[in-house]
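Support reply, case 0932

Customer input (verbatim):
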Amino acid sequence: MLSSPLLLSLTLFLSLPFLLLLSPHLLSSPDADDLTLFRRAAAAAAPRRRTAAPKIAFLFLTNSNLTFSPLWAKFFLPSHSHLFNIYIHADPSQPFSRPPPSLFPPSHFVPSKPTARASPTLISAARRLLAAALLHDPLNHYFALLSQHCIPLHSLLFTHSYLFKTHPSNYLNFNKTHSSNLIFKTHSSNLSFIEILSQEPSLPTRYAARGPMLPEVPFSSFRVGSQFFILTRRHARLVVRDTRLWNKFRLPCLTPEPCYPEEHYFPTLLSMLDPDGCTGFTLTRVNWTGCWDGHPHLYTAPEISPELIRRLRQSNSSYVYLFARKFAPECLLPLMEIADDVIFRN
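Our regenerated output:
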C-alpha cells in the first residue's frame, strides 16, 4: 500500500492538468465584493407601472476632483431633482474633495477601487456605477456614463425630454400634480446610445493586443466604440450580469498600445447580445482631430465660445449631442459666463 505522502503527491500530480484547465476561470473570477454587488444588481427590476417620472442616472467616473461641478450644479437644478440621480466613482488612490452640498446636488459615492488607463479597471469601475444605480432607485431608466472632463451641452429638462421623447409638460409640474394613475410613455427609451464600430481600421491590431479571446469572442464579433455611453436599464442589467465575456476582457492586455479595454468590452458585449437594441451612436461629442497617445483634443479657455457650444451639439446623424469632452480645468470660468444664455437656454 502507498504511504500517505506518496499518495498525496500522486493525487496532486494527477490533478495538475485539471487545475491548469480551470486556472483561467479561477484567475478571472471578480473580487467577491464586486461579484455580490453585480449579482444583486442583475436581479434588480424596474417597476411594472410608472407612477413617477423615469430618471436618468448620471454616473461620474473620475480620478480627480469634479472641476466642472459649478457648471453641473446649474444643470442639476433642485426643481428637477425628481428626474435624476448622481453617482460618483472616485479613484481612492487619488486625492478627491467632495463638492459641498451647497454647491452641488447630493450624490451617491459608490464603493470604489483604483483605476488605470489601458487596464480592465475602468470596466470594473463602470460596472460598479451601473450596479449601484440599478440597486439604488428602480426609477433609474437611463444610465449616462461621464468623466470629470465632460460638460453638458443642454439643460437637464432638454436632456430628459430628448431621451424619453416626452413633452416637457408631461413632467415639468409632476411634483405638484402627482397622480397614482399617471403613466409616463417612453416611446423610444428602449434603445441604448453607445458607439459600436465594426470597420475601424485599428480593429485587427486592437484585437491582437487584447490577447487570446477565443472561443468567446471571435474577431468577427469584436467591436470598438467610445468609452462613454448612455444605456437603458435592460442593458445595464446585461452588463452587470455578464461573466462569460468578462472572463476574457478582465485579463491584462498583451501590450498597452493600442489596447483600451473599456472601448472594447461594452460595444462588443452589447453588439453580441442585442445589436438591434443599440443606436450605435454615442451622445457624447469628442474631437479626435490632432489626437495624441490615444487622447482626444483638449479644449482650452480661448476656444470656449457660444459658437463652439452650438457646433458641438451638431452631428451628421439624426441624433444631437447631449454632452462633450475633453475640457481643461481652465475652461470653467468661460463656460460659466455663457452657461445661462447659451448652454442651458432651451
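We compared this against your earlier run and they match. Two observations from our side: Strands lie at 55-62, 84-90, 108-109, 140-147, 151-152, 192-195, 230-232, 278-280, 284-286, 323-325. The CA atoms of residues 74 and 340 lie 8 Å apart. Please reopen the case if you see a mismatch on your end.
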